[in-house]
Structures are given as structure tokens and as C-alpha cells.
Design goal:
The protein contains 10 helices and 12 strands. With 271 residues, the chain is an alpha/beta fold. α8 links the parallel β11 and β12. The chain starts with a strand and ends with a helix. The strands form 2 sheets. Strands 2-1-3-5-6-4 form a 6-stranded mixed β-sheet, sandwiched between helices. A 6-stranded parallel β-sheet has the order 9-8-7-10-11-12, sandwiched between helices. The structure holds 2'-monophosphoadenosine-5'-diphosphate.
């Protein structure tokens, strides 16, 4: 019998996940379907329970339901616990298992596709919302020299660090205001939502250097962050590779096989 999967969000019509998973399934000969499902803003739990009742094996979760998905799970991976959010649900034996593949997807894109080292690197993480929280533990696990979190609201960056240090005993973290940044970083990651509104961040130009990688987790457009990094000579990437890599990790959780991501990334890039 064909196994059924879905991505649940609101809005959802823009989602590339059905196309990505269809490519993965084709590549690895998996008998499965994957569809996009719009859940009402107040109806996430009901939608998920409906999928389970229809025999779905799992689902991805996107905006704005990743936190509700976290609350709904009976079991959580360490990655999901650290993220405080879930993007991959697996339905098995009446249980809902939650994982978060966003951070792993980011690391795979930076190290695998962009061939930029994280081990020993000085990393600047811009933002302290859900997206930044979602990638923090996998970033630390990549053994950087240091991760500095900078955010408009500095207290949120400090809270994120305190929580991470308390739960996962990491000591390579510190917080900084935008203005206090005074040296270049090897990797600068924009995890704020400013790309959506075309808002420039008050990041000093000094953080970008010729050999640094400036990565915006947003995809589909050149953000002001990317433009600033480019002018200052950094290598620039958007989040399309992360999108495909987080999907590949979810696919691996469900199907136990690893699809090739590079052809799917270039296919989406062309489209
Ligand atoms: P997401 O789930 O996309 O992370 P979020 O949790 O609302 O969304 O977090 C948004 C992030 O973008 C935060 O780091 C936010 O900064 P604050 O914590 O100070 O609010 C950042 N952000 C959004 N708009 C911004 C702006 N105009 N300037 C600077 N930072 C901004």
C-alpha cells in the first residue's frame, strides 16, 4: 500500500515540499505520496489527528504551527527539544514522534553543498526568534570556535544562551548588540525575518570579510542582508539549499534512505 505523507501549514500553497519529496521518492523508488495541507489557524491539532485517522505515516510542519507541533508530540528528539519546535512528525503505533531537521539541513548545506567549514569557525548568528533557536544546537554540535548571537532585543539573545547552557552545557556562546560587533566572522547567518519585509539590519560592515560566508535562511529573493554582505566581499548564499536538506533529513527519518539533494536544489534554482 502506498504510504502517505504531507506538509501542514497556513498559508501552504507556496510550499515547495511536495515537489521536493516527489523528486526524492522518484530517485529512491519509494512508494509514497506527499501533499500540501492547509490547516485552519485554530485547527492544527484536529488536522493532524485527521491525518493519523486516514493512515498517514508522517508530516512536515511549517509556519505557524512548529510550536504547536512540539506541544502535540508524545516523544521528542534531542534536536526538537533544543529547538523548542518540531518540523517533522512521525506517526507510529498510536504515538506522535517529533523531530526538527532545520538545523541539520542548515549544517548540511553550509558544509556539504557550499563546502564552508564550521569546525573552529567564528560564527555570528543574527536573530533570536524561532528560526535562530531551531538551528542553535546543530550549529554548536558542528564544533565552532564560538557562536555570538546578535539581536535587536538583546535580552532575547541572552535568554536563548542561558537556556541552551542550562540544558546542553555549551560554553561557546555569547550575546552582542549590533553596535558592539567590531570584528569579522567566518560565517554570518541571518535567522531574522527581516528578509520578508526587505528591512536592512544595522549590522556593521566589519563583520563581513572576503572569505566569510553570509547565509540568509530566507530563499527566493536577494535580501538587504545578502546585498550588504555582497558589497562587502563576502560569499553569499540563500536558504534554498537548507530547505532541500531539511526535507532530505525528514525523508531519511521516514524512509531510511538518503536522496541526492544537489539535483533537486539546481532544479528548484532554475524554476
Ligand atoms: P521566526 O520564527 O522567523 O524566527 P520570530 O520568532 O518572530 O520569527 O523572530 C523574528 C526575529 O527577527 C527576531 O530575532 C526579531 O528580533 P526581535 O527579537 O528583536 O524582535 C528579528 N526581527 C524582525 N524584524 C526585525 C527588524 N525590523 N529589525 C531587526 N530584527 C528584526
Amino acid at each position: 500500500m502506498t504510504d502517505k505523507y504531507a506538509v501542514v501549514g497556513n498559508p501552504i500553497s507556496h510550499s515547495r515540499s511536495p515537489q521536493i519529496h516527489a523528486e526524492f521518492a522518484k530517485q529512491t523508488n519509494q512508494d509514497m505520496t506527499y501533499e500540501a495541507i492547509l490547516a485552519p489557524l485554530d485547527g492544527f491539532e484536529k488536522t493532524v489527528k485527521g491525518l493519523i485517522a486516514q493512515g498517514f505515516k508522517g508530516a512536515n510542519v511549517t509556519v505557524p504551527f512548529k510550536f504547536e507541533a512540539f506541544e502535540l508530540c508524545n516523544e521528542l528528539s534531542e534536536r526538537a527539544q533544543a529547538a523548542g519546535a518540531v518540523n517533522t512528525l512521525t506517526f507510529k503505533a498510536g504515538q506522535i514522534h517529533g523531530d526538527n531537521t532545520d538545523g541539520t539541513g542548515l549544517i548540511a548545506d553550509i558544509q556539504g553543498n557550499l563546502e564552508h567549514a564550521l569546525e573552529g569557525a567564528w560564527i555570528l548568528l543574527v536573530g533570536a526568534g524561532g528560526a535562530a533557536q531551531g538551528v542553535l544546537l546543530p550549529l554548536l554540535n558542528a564544533k565552532p570556535a564560538s557562536v555570538i548571537i546578535t539581536n535587536r532585543s538583546l535580552d532575547k539573545a541572552q535568554n536563548m544562551i542561558d537556556n541552551m547552557a542550562a540544558k546542553f552545557a555549551h560554553n561557546k556562546l555569547s550575546a552582542s548588540s549590533f553596535e558592539a560587533l567590531s570584528a569579522p566572522f567566518e560565517v554570518i547567518i541571518n535567522a531574522t525575518s527581516t528578509g520578508l519585509t526587505d528591512t536592512a539590519l544595522p549590522i556593521p560592515n566589519i563583520v563581513f570579510a572576503k572569505n566569510s560566508l553570509a547565509y540568509d535562511m530566507m530563499y527566493g529573493r536577494e535580501t538587504p542582508f545578502m546585498a550588504q554582505a555582497r558589497i562587502n566581499g563576502a560569499k553569499v548564499a540563500d536558504g534554498l539549499g537548507m530547505l532541500v536538506e531539511q526535507a532530505a533529513e525528514a525523508f531519511y527519518i521516514w524512509r531510511g534512505s538518503r536522496p541526492q539533494t544537489a539535483p533537486v536544489i539546481s532544479q528548484l534554482r532554475k524554476a
